[in-house]
Write a structure and sequence with these properties.
Layout (H helix, E strand, L loop, with lengths): L1 E9 L1 H12 L6 E5 L2 E2 L8 E2 L3 E8 L4 H18 L6 E6 L3 H4 L7 E3 L3 E5 L10 E5 L11 H13 L9 E5 L5 H8 L4 E6 L2 H13 L6 E5 L2 H5 L8 E7 L2 H10 L5 E13 L3 H10 L2 E9 L2 E8 L1
Parallel strand pairs: 8-9, 10-11, 10-13, 11-12, 13-14
Antiparallel strand pairs: 1-5, 1-6, 2-5, 3-4, 7-8, 14-16, 15-16
Helix pairs in contact: 1-2, 4-5, 8-9
Length: about 300
């Protein structure tokens, strides 16, 4: 069977957003591949440098033209947020999908103690704690700066600012990578919620791959559902919201800060640098004090505490 490959080469900040648009219309999955990998002497897995190539494959059937138009339309709207190159379309003969897309993923060291490992690879030697992730339909594969910034802050606060056996809430959990990482560090329990049922299933699968499934609950929902008691906990010492700035602002109004225990920490990411001041100001209006800000490229993550 002949397929139509669609691809865009973009910087790291836009790769997952482009992948999300493509994944709406590509049933066999989307690949984010590095165009180059660099490694230092003490670098256990290497790291991506330069732009990333996002690609997927459409069956060349009767619905092809309609699907192609929808993809182009979705990318056009995304390009209004930040300019994108035009997608490249080219025919491609059928290949073994199960193995081909896996070739583009490699272990990624994050922070001082963690390393993200694709689920089908062996854990690299060393003392880092592996977070095994099977990239699928959900966000949070660990390749995007927003996810890495959250993991760095988790690594920073675990064992220092957070109490022993702390609990975690992840709003918009995606693949479940943040909750799994926290449980493999010092957390005793985590709840992940997402409005996408596919993300909930991905989180559950990744929790099992990391042997933390018994301590992670996942479900469909967001701030409102947590607050009204639909899940086992309504508050936690560590709360994540790695989404997008406009959604974070809305979640503040929904009661996001009420999910953070008085001695807890709220980690926010998915924020562009030019949006950070607005998020910091909104957090302050809702009783939070900024304790740390980290930035990679155009993306910012913020850690705050209740005043």
């Amino acid at each position: 069977m002949t397929w139509l490959e669609v691809s865009l080469t973009v910087d790291g900040e836009m790769a997952e957003a482009v992948a999300e648009v493509l994944a709406r219309y590509i049933p066999d999955g989307v690949v984010i591949e590095s165009t180059a990998v660099a490694a230092e002497a003490d670098d256990e897995g290497g790291h991506a440098v330069g732009p990333l190539r996002v690609c997927g494959y459409l069956p060349m059937d009767a619905s092809l033209e309609d699907t192609r138009r929808r993809i182009e339309e979705g990318l056009w709207y995304l390009g209004r947020i930040r300019p994108l190159p035009a997608p490249v379309f080219k025919p491609f003969e059928e290949i073994n999908w199960v193995e081909a897309w896996k070739e583009h993923y490699h272990p990624i060291p994050v922070g001082e103690r963690l390393i993200i490992v694709p689920a089908w690879l062996e854990t690299p030697p060393g003392n880092r704690i592996p977070i095994r992730i099977d990239p699928g339909m959900a966000f949070g594969t660990g390749t995007h700066p927003t996810t890495q910034l959250c993991l760095e802050l988790l690594d920073r606060f675990d064992g220092r600012e957070l109490p022993t056996g702390y609990q975690v809430l992840d709003i918009g959990c995606g693949s479940g990578i943040l909750a799994a990482a926290a449980l493999k560090l010092g957390a005793s329990y985590a709840l992940g919620v997402d409005i996408d049922p596919l993300a909930v299933e991905a989180s559950r699968s990744n929790a099992e791959a990391n042997a933390v499934g018994e301590r992670l609950d996942v479900g469909v929902g967001s701030v409102a559902e947590v607050r009204c008691g639909q899940f086992a906990i309504r508050q936690a010492e560590l709360v994540f919201a790695n989404i997008l700035a406009p959604i974070i602002l809305r979640l503040f109004n929904d009661g996001l800060t009420e999910l953070v225990k008085p001695s807890g920490i709220l980690i926010l990411s998915g924020i562009l640098a030019e949006q950070a001041d607005e998020i910091i100001a909104a957090a302050a209006q809702h009783g939070l004090q900024l304790i740390e800000r980290r930035q990679v490229g155009d993306w910012v993550a913020l850690a705050s505490k209740p005043v």
